[in-house]
Amino acid sequence: MPSAETLEESKKSAKNPASEARFDLANRLFFRLYQSANMLHKTGSRAVEAEGLTTQQWAVLGALSRERAREGMAIGELARYLMVSRQNLSGLIGRMVRDGHVAIARGGHDRRERVVTMTQAGRHVWLDQAQPKIRAYYEAALADFSGGDLAHALHYLLKLLGNMERIDAAQAAQGVSRLGDDHAPDEGRRVPEADPAVALRPDARA
C-alpha cells in the first residue's frame, strides 16, 4: 500500500503537469546524451583504430596539440581539462607512453609534478594520420547539420556543462570525491570510456 508521503508526492505531481513534462524532457535528453557518448566512443574509436588510438587517446592528443600546451601539461592540469580522474588518466597516459605517442618528464618549477608532452611520433600520428580521419568522421556524424545548428548545439552543450561543473563544485564542498581528485573512484562514477563531458578538442573552452 502506498505510503502517505508517496501519495502526497503523487498529488503534487498531478497538480504540476508542467514540472512532469520538464522532467520527462530532461530524462530523454540525458539518456540521449548517454547513448551519444557510448556511440562516440564506439564509432570514433573505429575511425582511428588503424592509428592505434581510442577516443580517450584522441582527446589527450587533441589537448596537447593546442598552442598553449606546446610545453606540455601537468597530469593534474590535463585531468581537470579533460574532466577525468587523475587515477584514470594515469593509466591512459601509461599506455600512450608505451606506444610512443607522449612522454612524461618532471616539471621545471615543481619537480614533484609530472608533465605530459606529445612526442614527434605522436604529433605525426595526430596531424598526418588521425586528423584526416577525424575530419571525415565529423562530417559523417554532423551530416545535415547547418552552421547554425552547430553553433546552437555547442551553445547549449556548454551551458549544460557549466551547470554540471557547478554541481561538481558543490559536491566537492560537501566532501564528495571529484573526478579530478586522486581518490576519485576508478569505475564507480566514470562514464564508460567516452566521457560525455569531454569535447575531443574543446578549443571554445581552452
- Give a short account of the largest sheet: 3 strands, antiparallel
The stretches of 5 or more residues where confidence is low (pLDDT under 50) are 182-199, 202-206
Oligomer: single chain
Q: How many strands in all?
A: 3
* Highest-level CATH class: Mainly Alpha
Mean pLDDT: 84
Q: Tally the helices: what do you get?
A: 7
> Share of helix among residues?
55-70%
Rounded to an integer in angstroms, the radius of gyration calculated over CA atoms is: 20 Å
* Beta-strand content bin: 5-15%
Strand order of the largest sheet: 1-3-2
**Topology pattern, helix = H, strand = E:** HHHEHHEEHH
Mind explaining what this structure looks like?
The protein has 206 residues and is mainly α. It has seven helices and three strands, in the order H-H-H-E-H-H-E-E-H-H. Helix content is 60%, strand content 6%. Strands 1-3-2 form a three-stranded antiparallel β-sheet.
Structure characteristics:
206 residues, mainly alpha, Arc Repressor Mutant, subunit A, three-stranded antiparallel sheet, 7 helices, 3 strands, 60% helix, 6% strand, globular, disordered C terminus
